[in-house]
Amino acid sequence: MKLLSAALTRTLDQATIQAQGITSLELMERAATALFDWILTELRPAYSTPIHLFCGPGNNGGDGLALARLLHEAGYAAHVWLLPAKRYSADFTANRLRLPAEVPCQELAAARFPELPASAVLIDALFGTGLSRPLTDLAAEVVAHLNRSPALRIAVDLPSGLLADAPQPPDSPLVQAHYTLCFELPKLAFLLPGHAAFVGEWHTLQIGLEQEVIHNMAVDNYFIEDNYLKGCLPKRPRFSHKGTFGHALLLAGSQGKVGAAVLAATACLRGGVGLLTVRVPQVGYAILQTAVPEAMCLPDSAPDILTELPDLTPYAAVGMGPGLGQQAASREVLRQLLQTATVPLVLDADALNLLGANRELLELLPPDTLLTPHPKEFERLVGIPARHDYHRLEQLRAFVRQHRCYCVLKDAYTAVAAPDGTLYFNGSGNPGMATGGSGDVLTGLLLALRADKRLSALDAALLGVYAHGRAGDLAAQETGEAGLIASDLVRFIGPALQELTASAPGL
Ligand SMILES: NC(=O)C1=CN([C@@H]2O[C@H](COP(=O)(O)OP(=O)(O)OC[C@H]3O[C@@H](n4cnc5c(N)ncnc54)[C@H](O)[C@@H]3O)[C@@H](O)[C@H]2O)[C@@H](O)CC1
Ligand SMILES: [K+]
C-alpha cells in the first residue's frame, strides 16, 4: 500500500469528500466511529474506566471530541480536556457544540492538569497531520504530563508532536503512545527506528477513503503488507527440471565463519534454486559437504579464506559475502567478480564492508546488483553518517540512483530501494529475527530468487525480503521470539514462499 505525505493525505480527504458527496464533518464522524469501535473491541474498557480525551484546536481535536460523544452515548466515562488556542477548526467547533453538556469538559491550564492514574485510558487527540512545527509552551507541558502518567496512551492518527513525514529537532516534545490509530494508510514516520518509542503499536482503521484516488496518486514510498505479494511467485510448471530455476553460485565462509556459508546455502536451496554450487576455503569443504549435501562444493585452494574466483560460465546468479572476511585476497575476488559477472549479483556482509573500505569498487557494480546492508554497513558504503532517519532514506535513494542497483536496508521495517529511488518498506518479521545468521539466510534466499529467470529484480527483492520476515513470523509461532535462531528461518522459507505462490499456472 502507498505511504502518503501529510499533503497528499489532505488531498485524499478532500477528494473523498467531493467524490462521495459527504461533508468533512461526516468524514470525521466515520473516523471517530472507527476509533470507538477499535477501543471497544480491542481494549474492552469497563464502563467505570476513566477515559480522558486531550483535544487540540484542529481536526485531530475534532476527532477526539466526536469520540468523546460516542463514548458518552455508549455509557462510558469520558472526560474532555481542551488545549486553548486562538483559532479552532470548523469541525472542531461543530463537535464541541455537539458534545453533550453532561460530559465534563475543561480547558487545560499549566496549574490545572488532571490526575491520570494507571487505571485511566488517555486519548491523545492534540495534533495530527496539521502540525507544522515542534510543540512548545502549554502543549509541550501537556505532552510531558501525559508521558509521566502510568495510564495507557492511545494516539489518534499520530502521536502528538510527531511530524508525519519530516524530521523534527532532537528532543522535541512527543507523546509516547502505546497505540497509534491512524486512518486507512500508515505513515512513513511509523516505520523509522527513531520513532518506535513514540508510535508504539500502530493500527490502520478503515474510514472509506476513495480507493480510486489513492490508486492514481504518485508516491515514492510503499508499505508491503500481507496481501501485496500474494500470488507473485509463479507456480512451478509440471514439466520443470532443475535447470528451470537456475544454477546459483555462492562465495562465502572463512575460518570460523563457515556456518554463515551453511546458512546461506540451505536458505538458497529452500528458496527454490535449481542447483547450487558453494565456493568455500578448504576449511569449509568437509563441513559444507556434510551439512548441506544438496549443494555442490567447489573449494578454494587457500586453507582459510577465498582467494580465487571460479569460472562464472555455468551460473545464473552469484552471491557473495556471508562469513567472507575482509582480507585483501578476498577483495580481489570481489573486484574480479564485479568486472566479469554478466548475471545478477547479490552482495552482503563482508562483501559490503570491502566495498565500503574500497569505495572505488562501487563504480564497478553491474546494473541491478542487489546489496543487503544493515544500517552500519550502509553507512560504510556511503561513507557519511546519517544525521537522522530521513537523511538515511535520502542517502539510500541517492545511492541506488547513482549506482543503478537495488539496496535492501535491513531494519525492523526493512526498506527495499529500487534504482528509480522508490522505497518499499517491509511489514513482515519480528524482533526474534535480530539474531546471528538471520542476514545470511536472507542472502541465500535472495540468491535463489535472483537465479530464477521468471522473476524481475524488483519482484525477487520484494518477495525475498517479505518471505524472510514471514518465515520469521511462522518460526516464532513455534519457538517464540527469544528462542528463534537462524536455522529456524530456513525451515520456514518453504511455507512462507508457498503462501506467496500463484494458484494458477504461469505461461
Ligand atoms: N481532513 C479530514 O477530512 C479528516 C481529518 N482527520 C483528522 O484531522 C487531522 C488533521 O487536522 P488538521 O489539519 O486540522 O490539523 P491538526 O488537528 O493536526 O492541527 C492543526 C492545528 O494545530 C495548529 N498548530 C500546528 N502546529 C502547531 C504547533 N506546533 N503548536 C500549536 N499549534 C499548532 C494549527 O494552527 C491548527 O490550528 C488528522 O490528523 C486527523 O486526525 C480525520 O478526522 C479524518 C478526516
Ligand atoms: K494525536
From TrEMBL:
Residues 225-500 form the YjeF C-terminal domain. Keywords: ATP-binding, Isomerase, Lyase, Metal-binding, Multifunctional enzyme, NAD, NADP, Nucleotide-binding, Potassium. GO terms for molecular function: ADP-dependent NAD(P)H-hydrate dehydratase activity; ATP binding; metal ion binding; NAD(P)HX epimerase activity. K(+) binds at N60, D124, S160. Coiled coil: none annotated. Residues 9-215 form the YjeF N-terminal domain. (6S)-NADPHX binds at residues 59-63, 128-134, 157, 260, 323, 374, 440. Belongs to the NnrE/AIBP family. Homotetramer. This is Bifunctional NAD(P)H-hydrate repair enzyme. The gene is nnrE.
